[in-house]
Amino acid sequence: MSRLVLATKNPGKVLEIKEILRHLPIEVVACSAYKGIPDVVEDGETFQDNAVCKARAIAKATGEVALADDSGLEVDALHGAPGIHSARFAGDDLPRGRERDRTNYEKLLSLLEDVEDVKRTARFRCVVAIVGPSGKVRLAQGVCEGMIAFAPDGCGGFGYDPVFIPLGHTRSFAALPQDVKNAMSHRALALKAALPFIEEFF
After folding, report:
1. How does pLDDT run across 79-96, given as a tens digit for each residue?
2. Sorting pLDDT into bands at 50, 70 and 90, what band is 40?
3. Mean pLDDT across the chain, nearest whole number?
4. How many structural domains does the chain have?
């Protein structure tokens, strides 16, 4: 079976992408299934830069088609921040996982403490890059509009999910059923847009 390697070690992201791509006749695996995978420095100036950099490095290291996404939260009241710095919003020295997620969204809520609800507009943006062993690159993007809550809600998802309420809903991504989130999330929309490109590689 053909294999698509995900250029991420984030278990939450791996599960989400696998679920969204489950109908494809390919094996979807995390790059952690391989030995000697390099740590990729995400120092690009855009989501696209980072996604391409990660996918290119993993495709080269594994000899397989690689998929990477770079995504973040853009808050209008903060002039688009945290943006590409979403994962490191509260600092680079925090270990990945729930502790960093909580620290990031607590900082966000603190910065928005005095911002009224109508001005708490935000969006999740995701850029997906698919890179083949030959170096061919394909890109797709997805955006999910919403609002920032006043307090965390729900225990599902990861990242800023507990404080992001998608447009048309009253609960956060973390409180919504996974299948509901997967039908509208920025990552789901980007992967849906990327499907023709993924199929092109296989």
Report:
1. 999 999 998 998 877 677
2. confident
3. 93
4. 1
Structural tokens at position 164: 């992001």
How buried is residue 88: exposed, middle or buried, by Cβ count under 10 Å (0-12/13-18/19+)?
middle
Per annotation, catalytic residue among 69, 70, 101, 153: 70
Q: How confident is the model at residue 125 (pLDDT cuts 50, 70, 90)?
A: very high
pTM of the complete model: 0.89
- The question of whether 70 is a catalytic residue gets the answer yes
How many residues are present in the chain? Answer: 202
In this predicted structure, the answer to whether residue 98 has a pLDDT above a threshold of 90 is no
The whole domain housing 58 covers 3-201
The conformation of residue 10, written as its DSSP 8-state character, comes to: -
Beta-carbon count within 10 A of 143 CB: 14
Listed in sequence order, the residues at least 6 apart from 182 whose beta carbon sits closer than 8 Å to its beta carbon are 16, 19, 20, 188
What are the CA-CA distances from residue 41 to residues 50, 65, 158, 188 (Å)? 8, 20, 21, 24
Element (H, E) at 70: strand 65-75
Query: Could you tell me the CATH number of the domain that includes residue 94?
Result: 3.90.950.10
Among 196, 193, 191, which Cα is nearest to 68's?
191
- Report the distance separating Cα 67 and Cα 91, nearest Å: 26
